[in-house]
Specification:
The structure holds two protein chains of two kinds.
Chain A: E1 3-8, E2 11-16, H1 23-30, E3 49-52, E4 55-58, E5 71-73, H2 86-93, H3 103-116, H4 122-128, H5 140-154
Parallel strand pairs in A: 1-5
Antiparallel strand pairs in A: 1-2, 3-4, 3-5
Helix pairs in contact in A: 2-5, 3-5
Chain B: H1 15-19, E1 35-41, E2 47-53, H2 55-58, E3 63-68, H3 69-74, E4 107-108, E5 114-120, H4 123-132, E6 134-139, H5 146-149, E7 165-172, H6 174-182, E8 186-198, E9 206-212, E10 217-222, H7 227-238, E11 245-248, H8 265-276, E12 280-283, H9 286-292, E13 295-307, E14 313-325, H10 335-341, E15 352-361, H11 375-393, H12 397-404, E16 413-414, E17 420-421, H13 426-436, H14 442-451, E18 455-464, E19 472-479, E20 485-489, H15 498-510, E21 517-520, H16 538-565, E22 572-575, E23 578-581, E24 587-589, H17 590-596, E25 614-619, E26 627-636, E27 643-653, H18 660-679, E28 710-715, H19 734-750, H20 765-777
Parallel strand pairs in B: 1-12, 10-11, 14-15, 20-21, 27-28
Antiparallel strand pairs in B: 1-5, 2-4, 2-6, 3-5, 7-15, 8-13, 9-10, 9-12, 13-14, 16-17, 18-26, 19-20, 19-25, 22-23, 23-24, 26-27
Helix pairs in contact in B: 11-19, 15-16, 16-17, 18-19
Classes of the chains: A alpha+beta, B alpha+beta.
The structure holds FE2/S2 (inorganic) cluster (2 copies).
């Protein structure tokens, strides 16, 4: 079995992984980081989005072995020193979550969007969230939150 | 500074955990030594099981056991009974109810029906073994359409149930309605379908079962909306006392009805966990969920409207045939019968109405309540026939609705369907919606659309709803010396925010610090009874229980405060957490009163330490009638048939609003699911083979961020109901009632010059394009 080394939320991790192990399973089952959710088996829902070297990735669509040498951030690694990230704060302020199941993926995707396009508009948010499904909120508050979170991230 | 009382948009307590990835959903729980289960499901819509050979599979690596229908019957486990409130046919005989076992015994009746449970060390070992289990099927003819299922010569799903007929039902005055139709100047008739859809919460179902040899008790953690009723169902299956099954729901990732019912899997897991003496976990995968989560809607309806020469409604006649799938699920037969009947006619004044509903068996996954369970169907029926009447009679659809709404002074009124509409103001809500909709700017927007080659349409859809679910609820509060309070409630949130709104009520009434209130739900050991969630009952019944509990605490707290101040309980007034004697102006804080409740020396005679701890059960007498109005503006591209819902405006009468931010969230979430049904969602079975065509998220479309219109919402708060002490009318399902007719009628309005009178949901671009082409061809 291949041995991989990577950094997860700033902590170095070395693991022996089966070749077919998904990154989502590595995070959830091996590292106990259950904040990354799995909502489908066809890479459609986006609940599993994490950052790999700063880029948003559906962790159910990537093999753990492919993550060798990367830096990964999951939802657990977003808040710093007990203080919510501005995007997390914006989701809370705007009631952009209900059951919370899509939320980790939504937030990670949104942070990536706001980082890549600091002055993004509503249309860009909708486009950017194409691969993230939410069944609870009707999206309007999510869009509002991403706009507000992006603004807060600009400072 | 955030305020926490009733009516405040309090940010949610639960959000911090959900936003930091520290929520605990079923798949996040990993007991020591846990084994994993897979459900082997039928690949046929209808077939005899001639035999199941699991010998090879049993000997594969990691396999711990395989359970089949034969084992199940040998154990004499019981079928799961339906709890449909309508359970007799029109002739008074009981509904036809075939036995619903957790596993198929000798015949499968829908694709996805559980055939065996495979337990292994790992999921992939179970998957490998599943391939090796040989099920010998003899295929039978299948029928997946309820209308065809009732036709003579249709394949018989149950040998002893003739014609696939479960039950029929009627409501209203048949003769009066016939008279109304005879005397009518106009009769408008429409055949329509409310297609089959499924709730699709983003968290799939799942459960973990274990058995404790020493105590003889079972423990079930389950992504469910209802722990108490389902505990009783599973205990009944396994023939154990309910007390021996501790049923808990962790954080649940959405339900919308699909996690309400007594599913087969938990009983299988409980049984197997005892047998192998290990905890067992099962998590449904997404594809499995399309086949094995309950479906909803699926009604074939004929609706007829009788009008006089001035366009006043005289009568409404509705006949529905509802698909309930291969079995009577938990309350499946209720939806197309009683569930769809009660709100017939919507908010309009009808002198006479008559409703007939038939529930029919087919070879599909059974149906059970999905967000609204009958009311969205009723709302769609009335709004489509009214729109069609306006078109056929050349009346402005807004005008036709306006003149037929129940006048404000006609309330309280019992509708011909027996629905007790106590408070509200339908005309006012309607006019406010219209006003929000910027009708004055519409002509310009139509012209702008036309300049882009697009057609713009508008429709307005007032709706009348009613709540449901169990009428009784428990609330209990336990205090600690530091003034904090632990609240336990038997109703359940699967995302709606009751962890916030319930403490809001307690904080408002007792002046306790909101942050010092903890909340427990979904645990059969924490509350003696519990109705879970369903029928928009959480605030109406659960919230009322919390209020009643708070009021009972308050009576005792006043006595303690009076004792501490040497005065009378009647003179105590509580404001912002401080009791003041209205006569002497002396005061004592609630925090101090709580502290005193733990010191015998500071308590009045007759009270004991912990005196403030209170358990109560509230019982609702009459269901409430949420109502409101949606309007929609859409753009249709006649070249491609694609529909873009641009804007929706909504005014809802939910009575008292506890937390407007959460209520808005309910409305928008409901609109998204209503929009999904209107435009894209449909569960499709192949007509010949009975195979599920829409078995994955690649085939079953869900609304995405860019599917949604701009939504503007307002509440009409002038008509709280007296049916419950909070004055609330449930808000959870309203969006699904208003959105589909508003959107579909707006599309048809956009196409009115093309002569398109009706399109069946979902209004996919292909269907819209075809409808335009067909109308053109004449
Ligand atoms: S789990 Fe659905 S996209 Fe990854
Ligand atoms: S909050 Fe429930 S799926 Fe998005």
């Amino acid at each position: 079995m291949p041995v991989i080394s990577l950094s997860v939320n700033g902590i170095p991790v070395t693991a022996e992984v089966e070749p077919r192990l998904l990154l989502s399973s590595l995070l959830r089952d091996h590292l106990g980081l259950t904040g990354t959710h799995v909502g489908c088996d066809t890479s459609q829902c986006g609940a599993c989005v994490v950052h790999v070297d700063g880029k948003p990735v559906k962790s159910c669509a990537m093999l753990a072995a492919q993550a060798d040498g990367t830096q990964i951030t999951t939802i657990e690694g977003l808040a710093q020193k007990g203080k919510l990230h501005p995007m997390q704060e914006a989701f809370r302020d705007n009631h952009a979550l209900q059951c919370g199941f899509c939320t980790p993926g939504m937030v990670m995707m949104s942070v990536a969007l706001a980082t890549e396009q600091p002055d993004l508009d509503e249309a860009a948010v909708c486009k950017g969230l194409e691969g993230n499904l939410c069944r609870c909120t009707g999206y309007q508050n999510i869009i509002k939150a991403v706009m507000a979170g992006a603004k807060a991230m600009r400072g | 500074m955030e305020k926490y009382g009733i009516g405040q948009p309090v940010r949610r307590k639960e959000d911090v955990r959900f936003l930091t990835g520290t929520g605990t959903y079923i798949d996040d729980i990993k007991p020591d030594n846990v084994a994993h289960a897979l459900v082997l499901r039928s690949t046929h819509a209808h077939a005899k099981i001639l035999g199941i050979d699991g010998t090879e599979a049993e000997n594969m690596p990691g396999i711990l056991g395989i359970v089949t229908g034969k084992d199940w019957i040998a154990e004499d486990f019981q079928p799961m009974p339906t709890k449909s409130a309508v359970n007799k046919k029109i002739d008074g005989t009981p509904l036809n109810q075939p036995p619903r076992h957790a596993l198929a015994i000798d015949r499968v009746r829908y694709v996805g029906e559980p055939v065996a449970l495979i337990v292994a060390e790992t999921v992939s070992q179970a998957q490998d073994a599943a391939e090796a289990v040989e099920v010998d099927y003899e295929e039978l003819e299948a029928v997946t359409d309820q209308v065809k299922a009732l036709e003579p010569g249709a394949p018989q799903i149950w040998d002893d149930i003739e014609g696939n007929f479960c039950l029929d039902f009627e409501l209203g005055d048949k003769e009066e309605t016939e008279k109304a139709f005879k005397g009518a100047d106009h009769v408008i008739k429409l055949d329509l379908r409310n297609q089959c859809v499924t709730a699709t919460p983003i968290e799939t179902r799942g459960a973990i079962a274990s058995y404790d040899k020493d105590t003889g008790k079972y423990f079930l953690q389950n992504a469910t909306q209802n722990v108490h009723a389902n505990r009783d169902t599973f205990a009944g299956v396994l023939k154990i006392p309910s007390e021996d099954l501790h049923h808990v729901a962790p954080d649940v990732g959405g339900g919308f009805g699909a996690k309400n019912s007594g599913y087969p899997e938990p009983s299988l897991l409980l049984y197997a966990s005892k047998k192998i003496d290990r905890p067992i976990k099962w998590i449904s995968d997404r594809n499995e969920s399309f086949a094995a989560d309950t479906h909803g809607r699926d009604q074939a309806t004929t609706v007829e409207l009788a009008l006089d020469k001035d366009g006043m409604f005289l009568g409404l006649r509705t006949k529905t045939i509802g698909n309930i799938g291969a079995y009577c699920w938990t309350v499946g037969p209720f939806t197309p019968t009683g569930g769809s009947a009660r709100t017939q006619g919507g908010p309009y004044y009808f002198p006479a109405m008559h409703y007939t509903g038939i529930a029919a068996f087919t070879n599909t996954m059974p149906l059970d309540p999905y967000r609204g369970a009958g009311r969205p169907e009723g709302s769609f029926q009335i709004e489509r026939i009214v729109e069609l009447a306006a078109r056929e009679l050349g009346i402005d659809p807004v005008e036709l609705r306006r003149k037929n709404l129940m006048p404000a002074d006609s309330l309280p009124r019992k509708t011909p369907m027996g629905l007790d509409v106590d408070t509200g103001n339908f005309p006012e809500v309607f006019e406010r919606t219209l006003k929000m909709s910027d009708r004055a700017g519409f002509a310009k927007r139509v012209a702008d659309s036309a300049a882009k080659g697009l057609k713009r349409g508008f429709a307005i859809a007032p709706y009348l709803e009613c709540t449901g679910g169990g009428p009784k609820e428990f609330a209990g509060v336990k205090f600690a010396r530091d003034g904090s309070a632990a609240l336990r409630v038997g109703s359940m949130s699967t995302g709606m925010g009751q962890e916030t709104s319930m403490p809001q009520i307690l904080s408002d009434r007792l002046g306790i610090d909101f942050d010092k209130i903890t909340y427990v739900q979904g645990d059969t050991d924490a509350t003696p009874i519990g109705g879970g969630h369903g029928g928009s009952r959480n605030m109406e019944v659960g919230g009322s229980a919390v209020l009643q509990c708070a009021n009972e605490v308050l009576v005792k707290a006043k006595q303690i405060a009076a004792h501490l101040l040497n005065s009378n309980a009647d003179d105590m007034e509580l404001s912002e957490g401080v009791f003041t004697d209205v006569k002497t102006d002396q005061s004592v804080s609630m925090v101090d009163v709580v502290a005193a409740s733990f010191e015998q020396s500071r308590l009045p005679d007759g009270m004991e330490e912990g005196a403030l701890d209170t358990d109560t059960i509230y019982e609702r007498e009459i269901i409430s009638c949420p109502n409101g109005c949606h309007s929609a503006e859409v753009e249709v591209d006649p070249e491609t048939g694609s529909v873009n819902v641009e804007h929706m405006w909504v005014v809802d009468d939910f009575g008292t609003i506890i937390n407007p931010m959460l209520a808005d969230g309910q409305v928008m979430g409901g609109i998204a699911q209503g929009l999904g049904q209107a435009l894209m969602e449909e569960i499709i079975y192949d007509e010949d083979s009975g195979q599920l065509v829409t078995g994955s998220l690649m085939d079953y479309a869900l609304p995405r961020a860019d599917s949604m219109p701009k939504m503007e919402m307002a509440f009409f708060e002038d008509a709280p109901t007296a049916k419950n002490p909070l004055g609330v009318k449930g808000s959870g399902e309203a969006g699904c009632c208003g959105a589909p007719p508003a959107i579909v009628n707006a599309v048809l309005d956009a196409l009115k010059d093309d002569g398109v009178l009706h399109i069946e949901m979902p209004l996919t671009s292909e269907k819209v394009w075809r409808a335009i082409a067909e109308a053109k061809a004449g």
